[in-house]
What does this fold into?
Amino acid sequence: MAKAVCFGEIMLRLNPEGYQRFVQAAKFEASYAGGEANVAVSLANYGHNAFYVTKLPDNEIGQSAVNDMRKFGVDTGKIVRGGPRMGIYFVEKGASQRPSKVIYDRAGSSIALAKREEFDWESIFQGASWFHFTGITPALGGENPEICLDACRAAKKMGLTISCDLNYRKKLWTREEAGRVMSELMPYVDACIANEEDAADVFGIHAEGTDVGSGRLSREGYISVAKELSERFGCSNVAITLRSSISATDNKWAGMLYRDGNACFSPEYLVHIVDRVGGGDSFGGGLIHSLLSDYDQQKAIDFAVAASCLKHTIEHDFNLVTEAEVASLAGGNASGRVQR
Amino acid sequence: MAKAVCFGEIMLRLNPEGYQRFVQAAKFEASYAGGEANVAVSLANYGHNAFYVTKLPDNEIGQSAVNDMRKFGVDTGKIVRGGPRMGIYFVEKGASQRPSKVIYDRAGSSIALAKREEFDWESIFQGASWFHFTGITPALGGENPEICLDACRAAKKMGLTISCDLNYRKKLWTREEAGRVMSELMPYVDACIANEEDAADVFGIHAEGTDVGSGRLSREGYISVAKELSERFGCSNVAITLRSSISATDNKWAGMLYRDGNACFSPEYLVHIVDRVGGGDSFGGGLIHSLLSDYDQQKAIDFAVAASCLKHTIEHDFNLVTEAEVASLAGGNASGRVQR
Amino acid sequence: MAKAVCFGEIMLRLNPEGYQRFVQAAKFEASYAGGEANVAVSLANYGHNAFYVTKLPDNEIGQSAVNDMRKFGVDTGKIVRGGPRMGIYFVEKGASQRPSKVIYDRAGSSIALAKREEFDWESIFQGASWFHFTGITPALGGENPEICLDACRAAKKMGLTISCDLNYRKKLWTREEAGRVMSELMPYVDACIANEEDAADVFGIHAEGTDVGSGRLSREGYISVAKELSERFGCSNVAITLRSSISATDNKWAGMLYRDGNACFSPEYLVHIVDRVGGGDSFGGGLIHSLLSDYDQQKAIDFAVAASCLKHTIEHDFNLVTEAEVASLAGGNASGRVQR
Amino acid sequence: MAKAVCFGEIMLRLNPEGYQRFVQAAKFEASYAGGEANVAVSLANYGHNAFYVTKLPDNEIGQSAVNDMRKFGVDTGKIVRGGPRMGIYFVEKGASQRPSKVIYDRAGSSIALAKREEFDWESIFQGASWFHFTGITPALGGENPEICLDACRAAKKMGLTISCDLNYRKKLWTREEAGRVMSELMPYVDACIANEEDAADVFGIHAEGTDVGSGRLSREGYISVAKELSERFGCSNVAITLRSSISATDNKWAGMLYRDGNACFSPEYLVHIVDRVGGGDSFGGGLIHSLLSDYDQQKAIDFAVAASCLKHTIEHDFNLVTEAEVASLAGGNASGRVQR
Amino acid sequence: MAKAVCFGEIMLRLNPEGYQRFVQAAKFEASYAGGEANVAVSLANYGHNAFYVTKLPDNEIGQSAVNDMRKFGVDTGKIVRGGPRMGIYFVEKGASQRPSKVIYDRAGSSIALAKREEFDWESIFQGASWFHFTGITPALGGENPEICLDACRAAKKMGLTISCDLNYRKKLWTREEAGRVMSELMPYVDACIANEEDAADVFGIHAEGTDVGSGRLSREGYISVAKELSERFGCSNVAITLRSSISATDNKWAGMLYRDGNACFSPEYLVHIVDRVGGGDSFGGGLIHSLLSDYDQQKAIDFAVAASCLKHTIEHDFNLVTEAEVASLAGGNASGRVQR
Amino acid sequence: MAKAVCFGEIMLRLNPEGYQRFVQAAKFEASYAGGEANVAVSLANYGHNAFYVTKLPDNEIGQSAVNDMRKFGVDTGKIVRGGPRMGIYFVEKGASQRPSKVIYDRAGSSIALAKREEFDWESIFQGASWFHFTGITPALGGENPEICLDACRAAKKMGLTISCDLNYRKKLWTREEAGRVMSELMPYVDACIANEEDAADVFGIHAEGTDVGSGRLSREGYISVAKELSERFGCSNVAITLRSSISATDNKWAGMLYRDGNACFSPEYLVHIVDRVGGGDSFGGGLIHSLLSDYDQQKAIDFAVAASCLKHTIEHDFNLVTEAEVASLAGGNASGRVQR
It folds into this structure.
């Protein structure tokens, strides 16, 4: 059980019930989520001492986010309170040929306006062995690129392993901005996580032979992307998620872990989707647990992919599964028979 | 943006939540729907000035139907208020091998008892370019066959294009009644819409080589039906929906548009169903938009089928999609990937 | 319409809404269920005079169970009231690769603590022609093995046909206890029902060539199991359910009825699951109806499998379908087309 | 425990959740209710063998009404099935100065169209000691006045006691019609129940010194009304409910029982209302139980008023209380302290 | 039926269900509301041709607000679409000694960032006779003070009557800012609406002898405030709401209308609260209807107070009552008896 | 901020929604509660480092209780996991004259079967300054009386202050058992909390001049009870809650704190009840905070009573209020005006 620190935003997630469209909703389900917060919950579920660092407004909505993190075992003692608001995002669940929709309302949030001096990284990292962030955090703007850099420097100095999920968000910044800022942060990163588009969007690294729109995936192309990321930034582990979207209801899902010149692919799962949002983050959470647990390369990617396969069957962003549940699926028990 | 007028019934739709059976329901979801009202909402969603004409009781339940139409942009200014009640129908959602069930309670409704003099078609059609009704409206009985005839005559005189969805309902009238009444109305109809059974039920026109029960569909058979409808009644456009029901959960869905002796078939979609009721009406709505927009024959049928494919993923009867969403699917974007 | 008596437990079933995990649930759906109670409801639905015999606490929760049975037409006049509590079980619905989970909290229930003298079987069986119980009831312990024996003896003496679903529950007793107790009861049983694991667990009878985990099913293996059960205990009918679990969402489902040395297999259904719990019991209910109705062997197994196929599409344990609905599916109408 | 028969309509009751207005409702709570059905449920709750007689359509909505009655212990074995539809009524719960609203949609129901020959009163009344109906049933029209007369004659001949709640409904018939029909039926009635307006509306019997609008109630006036009813029709018991409506949220509630020239008044309760609909019927149910139990005059009215006081705290029409609960309140235990 | 234009913000309102606290909420009820939007809905309910003018983001959340206004009959054709977001506010319903809480998240909204040139007031006011805004709109900052001034000038020039509800919001601006800006706008205002604190907060006009905290209200004090407002700004009508908060559950509610040196007080209502938010706006809506209808002074204030009394019994901000319902209460029918 | 330890049971609480009776419930709201757990949550809300000690089954239901405690800031690190089950209790909310009902199903729980050696009190109390338990814990039976004694001895030895709420539960033990066991524990108790019946039930100490049933309360009587408790067991603080139950909806609520021979009474609140369960525990939580904060005697009782007054307005057992909210009410701000 390691102390692991995640840093980023946490938002109020609002989604209509079931398959309702936004214009039909008389109620929104309220949960709290964010790329790094989702990872923190995964790590707590796997038994780690997970800390989440962010800034939240000092009102009841901010408190509700704190409470939700605490509920799932995340230590919220280092969260800064203050500032004007939490980011919000609206999710409409798609089905069959109708895609899911996400509307962000995150500008002007407390974390986006946070100041470097509000985070004492030496204190935060005391006793920790892992630091995780994603490309969304610097994309929030303001002092966040510098705060990420502060955190990376402190983490590296204090001997933590650092992971980063590229997570490019075109609504938050341009490819150019992302490339410039992430190029500064990546040299600190030991484990890099990306999906099929991130490397191209952020660093212009393209997987040849792959056409995301058509759903064709080339194993060779992914290996070449991982190799390039690994070599350009010195990441010892590069993990890539492989999603084939048959429809909003059915996806194929797999992953690849590249390490020391070798690529390991997980089995591919055909997933009947309950809630797809947070799928990538649950892969990150599983991968970090694999690396913290010194799993071998194949077991590492298998655990990460099984974890995120299960996430697709769970409502809302948090991947509420135990290590034993993930291990059971990773071990081949995929028949879904009732457990009494 | 054209002014389009739809005429028919609008009912209170009551369905248990989720997959509950009627006898399990402690609550009913309440919405408002009807074959022509569903088309009116589609047209409003695509940016047209859609008017709905019907008669509704002057109480809060009738007002709720008016409000629901207004919510989705339909002009309700020509709705007649009065009479005893609204029709009601109960829907139980099927799944897998269990079929959906619809129970109608529509006798004695305000629209069924409406009088010819209550509808001033010249005033209603002022400035309009399209009139739509379905075979359900004359089937309501009373003066409705005459009212439909009044409307068709006025529409034709004022230069509107007229569309009709045959929509045979065996609970409302016999095949003989339907054939007699519809044969009077069809000569006014420019665009005729039908499903795989309507032409046979109403006019005795059979698609050879097709066995609806077995799910086998013959393209040639459908063309022969459309040709016969087109020639018998002089319809310039005949559109037919092609549904293969694998189960209550999964359907194949396609359509064909016959014009000037040529038949265009849409691609076929495999649809994972959220709510199947209103599927045919959403095809009609898409087709009318195609024709109002002067789409070419292939684009016209592709838009109509994509529109109705999406309807199957939306709760309740109304097809709450935008023109852009339909166009995206019709353009080939069927992977259901999340839109952020 | 025959009088049929079922004896066993009925529990409060609590499940989170939709696909929520237990830790997400702010509400539980409350229903009442039990292996034999589910059969009683099926028999009432098919028009029989079904009695349920159990012991329930004399409080409002016990009364709610009585009311739920009454609602679905079961005669509750012979239920004994008293004792400390009802059993409870918690169900979490799985999806795709995530299995459903059942947590039992049934120790110390009124029925588990019931006394032999509380059940006057001669009075209970007055006018009845069928008695049904399952292997769960003696497994509840206390005097229940003796009570079951009392019931079987009285039933046999009074000329009732007796059916038993082996239903082995490893949380309730060991294989050894089950084998010993069930071996005493089975000689009274005319119709024996089992799933793919029960015969092995209880009597050490294995279907060769079948690996439940892998999902491979051998028809020959099942026949050998049925033959062995039939010959060892003199059961004139042995019915076995055949489930292939593709995932928690999709199962294949079929059954086999062995009689007089002949085995009849039903068609296999691919079922998209709404609620899988109670599936086996609904097979038992269908089979008993088949036998009470003197259906021929093929029709008997077809009805039982169609009944239980439909159960998988219905929320909660009770199989709320009519004889006509089952007969329609058993007759080949599996397309799930809307019934208006 | 006596066999008691109630005859009348049972409707589907639809109400928005909580204090929503009709136009706000996306869902309706569904329950089943009717003036006489509510009484039948009360009698079953007090331990009587209560039968309900009506006619319901042979579809799932009709079956749901049957199931709901069965759930609460009413014997539905004499209900006739067939005809086109069930009546429906919509209820909007008022609060403070905003009154509750009821919209009826009951025309053309199966019971309204029922035929005399469908009810075999000799068979229905076999072994029964009480018959109850209300003024609503003949007001449904068609053959219902004759059917009520048939029932009264048979009941009287077979020695049953007959009770009738005047229950004038101005939407169903005029004062003149009511007066004429009820005057024929009343001579058979032993126990007459009325509220503060019924006697005036139906028979022109006015309580002097009482202004319902203003809320002023005169005990003398009520006694004079009861005396007149008793003398004109030979009713041995006349019971009148006394409601003072402070607001839609708070009412004062009491009752009076007139017998042999003496009037007994109950205590008056100040009720904080949960659901007021069915309040009068629960008074009738309590009174009939009192009379069946041979309570003395004061105890009889106290029980009836306590029963109906409790009804005002229960959602939907049925008065789901036990005899013990009513007796506790009637005995003076009105503090509402938690019962553990 | 007059054309009336309201201008201001409309926000997404999110409140937990029932009496839940924010930290308990797994769902939020979603509705749309705002001080001026609430008035527009009132006016539409009373039969006026109510237009709402605002700026909303061009996404589905903005569209949902448009749809909600349309549903209740408001013309949304003049709403500007664009900008980054809608304001949001969170409401927690209080009870007894626990106060309701409102958390605003309205900074950076599309309307707050709107530009003067986006509103063509001459076109908007074509054919209109009334313009309404509140002190909240200029308080939104940016160009809104100027936009309000533009609107007032155009309205005055085009002969509209102008009403303004002072509605001071201390979270949006200081008393000094409010005083400065509102002093520029008030000379255009014909009808001024205020509550017991606004005049003091904005203009430093104090009602002597009144202590809001203690709940003591002095009629003389209110008259002096109205007189001062009337004289300082030349308002022909000044209306003041008088709220005595007994608890979060029970309030006393009344109002006063000052005109030509005379003050008319309404009766005082004791209100059992369902939802208190929007109470003041419903008073404004009622008052404007009174003035548009040329009611005499007493009837005008009675209608406005009855309207807002009813609002306290309705969920969410909009006052969903008809003119007839308000008139009934204003006419003295306050007993809340069921309307059948 | 002090470390405070609470020890006892935590149960799954199940209640129907709103005012539904048990037999109407298709859903139960699920929360977690217990006399001492409720106090722990209160202490965490007031900023203390609150630990909860209990034993919970090692399944998802037990985990859900842990998560709920964590959510509200309680440290669950010392909870023992294992054993068969959690206690459950069912709550039906009363209204007006209908009392709330509580049905316990707590026999055989993990905590009831816990062993002395499972609790290492020296480790648990490390750094703590307060220990709280109630009379319910020893009443659970098994080794719980000894475990409580172990805890009291360790706490006393380690210098903690000890509080105990007598909380007599007649369903758990007899008055004699309670008197014997509690008499052993009370000498360790510094602060004793009781309601109007506990002292009589447990120790036979009666408040003269008070008749709980009638609602009459004598201040002198309560003082004599407190004096007796204080003197007999050497408690430095004795606090008594004073509840007058007008109805299930409206209660009067006050309290008294006796110290050094002086009695301080709080103001009395008239409370409109949202949820009354947990009211007494919230008084205990407030009182402990007062004592930990060294409030003077009057302020101490005022805070405790204001805290518990607010609890009556909050759904479920936990008193989800902040210190500031309680202080505001205790300071006299009881008008319930909206806080924006």
Residues 207 and 235 of chain C are 18 Å apart (CA to CA). Residues 219-233 of chain C form the longest helix (15 residues). Chain C has a mean pLDDT of 96.
